[in-house]
Amino acid sequence: MQSRMGRADGQERSGTVDQERTMSISTGGSSEGSASFGQVLPNLVTRPPGPRSQSLARRLRRVESRNVTHLKPEFPVFWESAAGANVRDVDGNVYLDLTGAFGVALAGHTNPAVGRELRDQASLLVHGMGDVHPPERKVEFLEALTSLAPWPNSRAILGSSGSEAVEAALKTALLATGKPGILAFEGAYHGLTLGSLAATHRADFRGPFRERLYPGVHFAPFPDPLRMGEEAGEKCLKVVAEVLKQGAGGEAVGAVILEPIQGRGGVRVPPPGFLEELARSAREAGAVLIFDEIFTGLGRTGELFACAHEGVLPDLLCVGKGLGGGLPLSACLGPPEVMDAWPPSEGEALHTSTFLGNPLACASGLALLREVEDRGLVTRSAELGAVLLQGLRSGLGSIPEIAEVRGRGLFVGVEIADPKTLTPLDGFAAGLAEKALEHGILVLPAGAHGNVVELTPPLVITREQLAWVVPELVGLVGEALGSSR
């Protein structure tokens, strides 16, 4: 089996690949020789996707469910290595990553401090028995993580994915209140496992599984000042008050869950005061307020947690993505008065998993938390985010279709819409992501209509990389919109 696989790989790499590697169609960025990989500008040696990426796409199509990876002639590229804010694909092309790999590469791809911790831990213990005979690293990581939580003496439930953290939070809210109803928000994305999917708003995700989903969820509108005006927050809070009073799907509401800044929904920032009033309403109704900070947490928005921008304290907090330094790791955090709704273990945990508290993930998470603090990444995100926002607003301000450039820290969205009606330009950002790939830039689309360009680079992106990419993005957006008129 191994020899057959090896021959197939060798055959597909032979011939034109080495020739293609010598054909530079550079985007004009500096070569890797002038700076270390991780801090360089894009450099393309073949038009992406190159021959190896195309070959891997063919191989993947034969072995993976067709639902998972979007494969077509122009997309995607297959990664070989990464560092800092750079990614190299299997054809030798170097990209500037403005996705942070879904925000996971918070402290940079292949962070050296994380790598050292992983190597050391891998030589000692790769797997423990997290809820029976826990590894030492689990205790150390939980001590470090809970010390950063916004409550004294906080508690945590570990998981491997953001969806698991949301599942734990929703279960906790039910135990704490005895009320099964859930209030979520339009545009919300909380994961795709059945419990978290019930609180995820997008119809394309929910539709095929509607019969499996808990029906006691109500979606209130998320405040959108762009379309709802200055009273957006008040209008949405009126709906919230009514749902909290009447219940969701006939069930009394015990959980109110939202992202303090919606991520996949289009980097939507609520107006000032909305989160504070939402928290007040939830507590008056006896509901647990859950902030899903899986994307926004750990410095992404220029604060350790995005709720700090409004000075609002939730009852539960979900973290993930960057938390594991690249390894699967998530957590639901809360104060004792909420988390102690869980009964003490009598030998069988009510909520656990085989890989809970995995020592490799916890070692990686420890290194990540140290990097965030030691390198001042929260402050760095705030400072570079201001540069990114200002540059994009200045460069794109004269284009009629730019409905809004918004965000906090290095969490930025550019929304494209009809200038007269504000109707989203469906699929624009997805098309731009493909065009940006040809220029050595990795971006992602966001929003229910795929009309928001989402920018979430590693917090270690250099000022030089940022200074180069802003005018490049401005040019790409302007060119794409010009050709669409």
Task: Jot down its keywords.
single chain, 485 residues, alpha/beta, seven-stranded mixed sheet, four-stranded mixed sheet, globular
Description:
- The protein is 38% helix and 14% strand.
- The chain is built from 17 helices and 15 strands.
- The strands form three sheets. It has a seven-stranded mixed beta sheet, sandwiched between helices. It has a four-stranded mixed beta sheet with strand order 1-2-3-13. Strands 11-12-15-14 form a four-stranded antiparallel beta sheet, covered by helices on one side.
- α6 packs parallel to α14 and α11 (232-246) packs parallel to α12.
- 49% of the residues are buried.
- The model is unreliable at 1-32 (pLDDT under 50).
Summarize the structure.
The chain has 485 residues and is of the alpha/beta class.
List the helices and strands and how they pair.
Elements: H1 2-13, H2 16-21, H3 51-63, E1 79-83, E2 86-89, E3 94-97, H4 100-103, H5 112-122, H6 136-148, E4 155-159, H7 162-177, E5 181-185, H8 194-198, H9 203-206, E6 217-220, H10 225-228, H11 232-246, E7 253-258, H12 274-284, E8 288-292, E9 316-319, E10 330-334, H13 336-339, H14 359-374, H15 377-396, E11 402-407, E12 412-416, H16 428-437, E13 441-442, E14 444-446, E15 452-455, H17 463-484
Parallel strand pairs: 3-13, 5-6, 5-7, 7-8, 8-9
Antiparallel strand pairs: 1-2, 2-3, 4-10, 9-10, 11-12, 12-15, 14-15
